[in-house]
Write a structure and sequence with these properties.
single chain; mainly beta; OB fold (Dihydrolipoamide Acetyltransferase, E2P); 0% helix
């Protein structure tokens, strides 16, 4: 029997980029309904804590990260919806 958890899934969602300071620091995208995503290769221009974005992505099955936070995703497209909530958290990455 095949495990559907190992299949690539396409996603479309709106979320907030968040800087997480644990496990060496990284950026995540959290949604209002509790979704937690760990984008692989988030561009420098989108690494701003508090940035609200619309994302089209696909899951990256079988990928484990040291952060162990959310679902790993590969971003296919990303659009800035609101940059008025950006904080001064660590934006060096």
């Amino acid at each position: 029997m095949k495990n559907d958890a190992n299949k690539v899934q396409k996603l479309k969602f709106t979320g907030t980029v968040k800087y997480k300071s644990f496990e060496g620091g990284f950026y995540a995208i959290d949604t209002a309904d509790g979704g937690k995503y760990h984008p692989m290769g988030l561009s420098q221009e989108h690494r701003r804590d508090g940035l609200i974005v619309e994302v089209e992505a696909q899951t990256v099955p079988d990928l484990l990260t040291i952060q162990q936070y959310g679902t790993p995703i590969k971003i296919l497209s990303i659009k800035v919806l609101d940059d008025s909530q950006i904080s001064n958290k660590d934006n060096r990455m």
